[in-house]
């Protein structure tokens, strides 16, 4: 199995070259809990903001205990990295609330080695959680500088089995499909048809859907047969909108 980060598309080749060097020293898994100075705050967040909110999957909880969220936020917000709320990451975007990351991840019902597509790489934090869980991760980000900085921090932290692409995620990642699970971390006003098509039968899509500027409903979409999708609401949420490249409708 090859470990490493692939950052697709032409304009980001410089970051690829940088990451090739990072790959040399990469270790495949993070087996013990990190002992950085944020560890007590991270543990408290997991106890009071994740477990007590009802997340129960032990693997997801362990990943939330392990991934250093402070590395994915701008320096001026590091002291809030383990508060249970979203934080700005630049370009009008946010890193999601930790509880929502844990809830969405748990809702995907992942098995080791699953192929998971994420739409909205943002800071790279959700991708790191998926990698920590042993997934084969494909993540797409539409804002070029965010795609580059996420690739950079994920490389520094040695996360494995990550494939990153700078593109409009509305269309999914056809060449890498089908996926066992798809997670969308920006909100469209409808479920993109390409994502439904790229989900394996038996797979789960978790996606916030709602009007721009309003609250959305978080949906779990289970593809139970080729033409049958079962939708379950996971509750109300507030995500940044899924934006579209001009002229791609
Ligand atoms: N998962 C992220 C959260 C990012 S917020 C994290 O862990 O930090 C949502 C992200 O979706 C933003 O970075 C935004 O630029 C991106 N986004 C919005 N529309 C998109 C689209 N059509 N395709 C890909 N990414 C998109």
Describe it:
The chain has seven helices and ten strands. The protein is α/β, with parallel strands linked by helices and 249 residues long. The chain has a single domain, classed as Rossmann fold, CATH 3.40.50. The strands form two sheets. It has an eight-stranded mixed sheet. Residues 93-96, 119-120, 122-123, 125-126, 140-143, 146, 168-170, 185-186, 240, 242-244 line the site of S-adenosyl-L-homocysteine.
What's the short version?
With 249 residues, this protein is of the alpha/beta class. It is built from 7 helices and 10 strands.
Main attributes of the structure:
249 residues, alpha/beta, Rossmann fold, eight-stranded mixed beta sheet, 7 helices, 10 strands, 28% helix, globular, binds S-adenosyl-L-homocysteine
What would you report as the Rg, rounded to the nearest angstrom?
17 Å
Largest sheet: 8 strands, mixed
The amount of helix comes to 25-40%
Our measurement of the CA-to-CA distance between the termini, rounded to an integer number of angstroms, reads 37 Å
Strand pairing plus helix content: what structural class?
Answer: alpha/beta
The name of the CATH architecture is: 3-Layer(aba) Sandwich
User: Cofactors and ligands present?
Assistant: S-adenosyl-L-homocysteine
Output the CATH homologous superfamily: Vaccinia Virus protein VP39
Q: Assembly type of the shown chains? A: single chain
Series of secondary-structure elements, N-terminal to C-terminal:
EHHHEEHEHEHEEHEEE
User: Uncertain runs with pLDDT below 50, 5 residues or more?
Assistant: 9-28
Total tally of structural domains? 1
Fraction in beta strands: 25-35%
Count of individual beta strands? 10
């Amino acid at each position: 199995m090859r470990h490493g980060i692939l950052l697709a598309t032409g304009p980001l080749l410089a970051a690829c070259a940088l990451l090739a060097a990072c790959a040399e020293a990469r270790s495949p898994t993070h087996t013990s809990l990190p002992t950085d100075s944020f560890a007590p705050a991270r543990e408290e967040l997991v106890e009071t903001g994740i477990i007590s909110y009802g997340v129960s999957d032990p693997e997801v909880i362990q990943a939330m205990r392990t991934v250093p969220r402070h590395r994915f936020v701008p320096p001026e917000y590091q002291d809030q990295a383990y508060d249970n709320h979203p934080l700005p990451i630049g370009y009008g975007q946010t890193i999601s609330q930790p509880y929502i990351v844990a809830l969405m991840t748990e809702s995907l019902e992942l098995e080791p080695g699953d192929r998971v597509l994420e739409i909205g790489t943002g800071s790279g934090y959700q991708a790191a959680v998926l990698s920590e869980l042993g997934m084969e991760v494909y993540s797409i980000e539409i804002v070029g500088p965010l795609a580059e900085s996420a690739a950079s921090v994920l490389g520094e932290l040695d996360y494995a089995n990550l494939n990153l692409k700078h593109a409009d995620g509305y269309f999914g990642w056809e060449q890498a499909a089908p996926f066992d699970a798809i997670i969308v971390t920006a909100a469209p006003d409808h479920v993109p048809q390409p994502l439904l098509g790229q989900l394996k039968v038996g797979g789960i899509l978790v996606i916030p859907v709602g009007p721009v500027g309003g609250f959305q409903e978080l949906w779990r979409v289970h593809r139970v047969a080729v033409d049958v999708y079962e939708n379950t609401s996971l509750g109300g949420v507030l995500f940044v909108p899924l934006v579209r490249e001009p002229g791609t409708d």
